[in-house]
Amino acid sequence: MHVVSGAILDRWQGLDDEDIAARVLEGQTALFEVLMRRHNERIYRAARAILRDEDEAEDVMQQAYVNAYANLRQFDRRARFSTWLTRIAVNEALARVRRRGRYEALDENVLPAQETPMKTQRPSDPERQAFTKELGSLLEAAVDTLPDGNREVFVLRDIEGLSTTETAECLGVSDDVVKTRLSRARAALRRDLFERAGLAASTAFTFQRPRCDRVVAAVLARIG
């Protein structure tokens, strides 16, 4: 299989995953690169959420793609190609951590929790972008502390932006389990982030001496 050039990659951007997969099966095997490049970030995030190791996540990505390519004829379009591919990566990552006894399954007998959307704000200037980058590093460290099960749900739902149903399909659990795990993950992250930023929080919205002097002077001038 030869590498597809950038121009050729652009040429196929208008086709959906399922059509490209069909062309790969028909003999245009080089187009499998298009599928990999489209989904590298999602597959990395899914694997990284389970493994908590960047290098091993890349190994899992490679194996997942190899498995997907070898079993491409088994893709029956009952789910989206991206979901099918993510499921392969999730299974590969889970197999690895379970063989090493590094994964603790959560209790599935849980009641569904009410989901509330997390508000996001796009950076609007270099200073905010720098702050967002620092916050992103803080969030990554906090996500790594989440329990097995909660961690990958949070990554797929709130970082990758998958729907509840698609996340459930990728992980092989019910929609209610996804909702409950997401609620618990968000609550844990809020607690963790506040603890990690404890020193910074204590200095938030402080009223510095120059501002204090300015207000006092203005008031004294007005009351004469």
Structure report:
The structure is a single chain. By secondary structure, this protein is mostly helical. It folds into two domains: 6-99, Orthogonal Bundle (Rna Polymerase Sigma Factor, Chain: A), CATH 1.10.1740; 108-224, Arc Repressor Mutant, subunit A. 67% of the residues lie in helices and 0% in strands. It has eleven helices and no strands. The chain has helices spanning 6-11, 17-25, 32-51, 54-70, 81-99, 126-144, 150-159, 164-171, 175-196, 198-202, 209-223. Helix 3 (32-51) packs parallel to helix 5. It is elongated, with a radius of gyration of 23 Å.
Beginning-to-end CA distance, first to last residue: 85 Å
Give me the strand/helix succession: HHHHHHHHHHH
The top level CATH class name of the largest domain? Mainly Alpha
| Number of alpha- plus pi-helical segments | 11
Number of strands: 0
Work out the radius of gyration.
Answer: 23 Å
CATH superfamily name of the largest domain?
Winged helix-like DNA-binding domain superfamily/Winged helix DNA-binding domain
Q: Could you tell me the CATH topology label of the largest domain.
A: Arc Repressor Mutant, subunit A
Largest sheet: none
- Taken from the alpha-carbon principal axes, the silhouette is elongated
Mean pLDDT, to the nearest integer, reads 82
Class based on secondary structure composition and strand pairing: mainly alpha
List the uncertain runs. 108-121
Any idea how many domains? 2
Helix percentage: 55-70%
